[in-house]
Amino acid sequence: MKWFHHITKVLPFALALIGVNWYSHAQIPGQSYFPNGNNYIEYIYGNHPVILSIPHDGDLKPDEIPDRSCPNCVYGNDTDTQEMGRAMAQAYFNKTGHYPFVVINRLARIKFDANRNKNEDDNDNNPIIQEAFDNYHAYIADAKNKIIQDFGRGLFIDIHGHAHDIERVELGYTLTGHELRQADEVLNTTTFMNRNSIKTLVYEKVGEMTHVQLIRGGLSLGNLFHDKGFPTVPSAADPFPKEGEPYFNGGYNVWIHGSRLNSGNIDGIQIEINQDVRFDAESSALFVDAVATSLMEYLSLHYGFGVIDFDGDGVLSNLDCDDFNANINPNTNEIPYNGIDDDCNPATPDDDLDGDGFNNMDDCDDENADINPGSDEIPYNGIDDDCDPATPDDDLDGDGFNNVDDCDDNNSNVNPNAEEVPYNGLDDDCDPATPDDDLDGDGFNNVDDCDDENADVNPNSDEIPYNGIDDDCNPATPDDDLDGDGFNNVDDCDDNNADISPNADEIPYNGIDDDCDPATSDDDLDGDGFNNVEDCDDNNSNINPNAEEIPYNGIDDDCDPTTLDDDLDADGFNLVDDCNDNDTSINPNAIEIPYNGIDDDCNPATPDNDLDGDGFNNMDDCDDENADINPGSDEIPYNGIDDDCNPATPDDDLDGDGFNNVDDCDDENPDINPSVSEIPYNGIDDDCNPTTPDDDLDGDGFNNVEDCDDNNANINPNADEIPYNGIDDDCNPVTPDDDLDGDGFNNMDDCDDENPYINPSVAEIPYNGIDDDCDPATLDDDLDGDGFDNAQDCDDNNANVNPDAEEIPYNGLDDDCDPATLDDDFDGDGFNIAEDCNDNNANVNPGLNEIPYNGIDDDCNPATPDDDLDGDGFNNMDDCDDNNASVHPNAEEIPYNGIDDDCNPATPDDDLDGDGFNNVEDCDDNIANVNPNAEEVPYNGLDDDCDPATLDDDLDGDGFNNVDDCDDENADVNPNSDEIPYNGIDDDCNPATPDDDLDGDGFNNVDDCDDENPDINPSVAEIPYNGIDDDCNPATPDDDLDGDGFNNVEDCDDNNANINPNAEEIFDNDVDENCDGLIEVTPTKPETSVSAGNAKDYLYIYPNPANDFIYIEKWDKYQFLVEIYDVNKRLVLRKFNTNQLNIQSLANGIYFLIYYDEMGERIVKKLIVDRK
């Protein structure tokens, strides 16, 4: 608790004040209100769950309020706290867009202390102070109610300043420094939780945060301040004030408006700001910002109000389930299996994506709810349904093969790895190709098959001779003497022919080994290894296909007629005719190949290297096939032939300029050839290119003799002369260039140089559309000079007549040259002014029909009637029917014919009574007061409104006429209605039925506070203590007869206002003033002398040992707090500024009394309670 500050500085603060009656206006957040018309208490309306209270920095000292004068009063302001509090509110708005509620005491503390009980000061009886106190706390209460209404909960902050030596911020939770110094486990008990001014929050956080964590943990308000550079106690860094250190733990405002006493929804914290922060502008500004930010954080962290986004992910803390991790917020996609609620939606599965009740650790497919450890394994679906690899899915017999490969998945002896067990009727190896009783797969089982392991042996097989096997499983089929000649296949070389055997004689040349003895020749009589078919002489072993042919012996040694004996090269010529019988290309039939040095045709007369016979061989003759070409011939120019076989002799470049006669246009002149530049005008084709001009350099077809500019192809005798370009385009000086028409004027002076009749010397001819004299000033077609030529001007001799002139009526001229603009028929109706009686109105002319009653002579004929069509002497102004001569003002009215005969509506035709309704509508046309517009006059026996449904004598239609109905205009009032009490109406039309005095005691419900009990009314005497307001006067006490605020249950003398539980006990008078059942007497105080030396320690507690009361006396007069603890360190009593303590509730025993004064002094005394 805070009592005193040694601060007297007052900082003026400019305010924008609005003096309005706030109770009668809607409050505007951020607006200041001074509800009672003065500026003493300011209420800044808010719209967020924070209240800032600033009780001790007012600067107003009105003379009408006396200064405080009381023992131990503190008069100094908490300097700068008002300015800082306002700045905190503004900073909070700047950061959140919301206003906190702010209550400010603007009275100086010497006049009023808003952080004390109402009756603590000597000037508290002053009505202005009473009102200021009531207003200050009423505004806080109003803010609390508004916060609870809009938000359900909130935070009250009481802002102060301290002058302690330790420069730190002090936060007060109404826990003393001694209590804060308790161990965490002690401070976390309900005893201390109940003493906290944020008690409601503490209990809400149970299970989430401990009491200690809330007041000095990492997320406590003190720690939020400390983290922003402002040392604070309590906080994680400074958990409690040490023994002997001064500390303000929270005053009256936090006690009253926090949740300690009332357990309400508004928690309270006192902020004590140190001087270094308050008195330094920079530190003050930083702390203001820190408080605003910290309050935002505190509300977000602990109250769920999203006013801040700690992790900067764009989601406020009240919506963010982890506002310290930007990757976690409702906008994030849930990341499976990370154990984090990424999207702040517990319904979004993190590790049980398929929602089957098993997380990803246990669920082998967390995206399929049918697959999990609780599922039954479904065989053969290829899925581990129960997430147990040990449960077979497709290998039910556990033989290592699934149902795809295992043909019997219920028998572990049957699988692809098993060996087929013959003849057991099972497909043991799951291979239908592996036979069970037809092991060789030949289609015969072991009963019929004599060898069931050999598919080639079965009853369907052919017996294969000589293999020693009963192939057809028929022992009767012979295997090794098929021809039955007595020799088996080992000895018989043809066991299918009985004529062939080792016993048969060999028959030559029959191609058969008749005696089965290869040594006996059958077809190779000469024994050279070749039979008679292959051997061309089977009697000569030197002649056979393997023998080498011996040339020229006349024998076919190798039995190959194609192997020549005397034509070794096989060219068809034997060695007699063939000059080389080893080369097929040389023979008499071959063609001699020149120059190869070989006698190819075996004819030495055929030349080999001088084919043309000119005496030069091919080495010297450059064309050995032409006798005219050889080194002895003369070169013939330009024949394209090297006649003398000497390339140096020119054939086609006689002038030696490097170009032959094909390219050189003059092969006798080396200066003329394709590489030479053409020399103009020399008459020679120097470059042998006819396209290169010699005398027509511009290529326009004319040489320099004819062409006057042979460098410009556009200038030549064939070109058209281009006028006025200063060039002789056609090379003809006679062709004019700038006087085309030859009139003596060039184009500069001649406005038409192609017409010799147009030039400055010609006279202008009017209206020919030509500027004949080349002078625009000379008029050609606007003789009158009015700006319009003769084509536009209908009279070019009259400047007043032209298209711009205005038509002048009736002058006989077409002034505007527009025939459509009439001169004498203005209205254009076809009639001129002589015929037309109104030439300004096209609807008036002799050709129109007269329109009656328009007051116009439409047809320009005065004889045509306009306003008396029926000729009855009355025009249409007087005649109400100008088509009927019987109807006019002089006619008599005929009733009920539906015609206004006399043209006088006042004369009734069908409304004889003149009430505005005819006889059809009017039920009585003789009485003007009877008609459909009349109001029904009750009870006159007439149908005044001509409506039988309108009642005459039962106006409210309730079934009762005016005789019986006391209010015939109210259907709820009639003799059949129930009387409704207290409505002031005789509902049942019976004055005897009471309406407002139900109990009949003579007092109606306005005066009678219980109109159902005749014993209760203003005339009855109040009966004390019956709990009833007998006399209907709340001011008459029922159970507090002396009016001291205590009823007879609490008040031990209800007839004496000075005796009640709140009264101060007067010692030694034999009266129990405070109704505690005790008559107090003054105990004997020990005699102790006090000097300056021991004044500080002077503290008397007496009597000690004590009975029911103790008394405290201290040398100084500071305000103080007393706490009494039992031997178990439990707080059993706490009192502020009370010298007399009632200890009747304490049992006998030893206690410890701790005295704290406002200067931070602490004194401990032992107290003994002994009621002997």
TrEMBL record:
Q: Where is this region: Disordered?
A: 332-438, 450-469, 534-554, 965-985
Q: What keywords were assigned to this record?
A: Signal
Sections of the chain in a coiled coil:
none
- The answer to keyword Nucleus applying to this record is no
Query: Keyword Signal: yes or no?
Result: yes
Note the superkingdom of the native organism: Bacteria
Q: Where is the Secretion system C-terminal sorting domain?
A: 1101-1169
InterPro entries in the record? Put_metal-bd, Secre_tail
Where is composition skewed (Acidic residues) in this entry? 340-355, 383-398, 426-438
Where in the sequence does UniProt note compositional bias of the Low complexity kind?
399-417
In Pfam terms, one family for this protein is: Por_Secre_tail
Supply the NCBIfam families for this chain: Por_Secre_tail
The name of this protein is: MopE-related protein
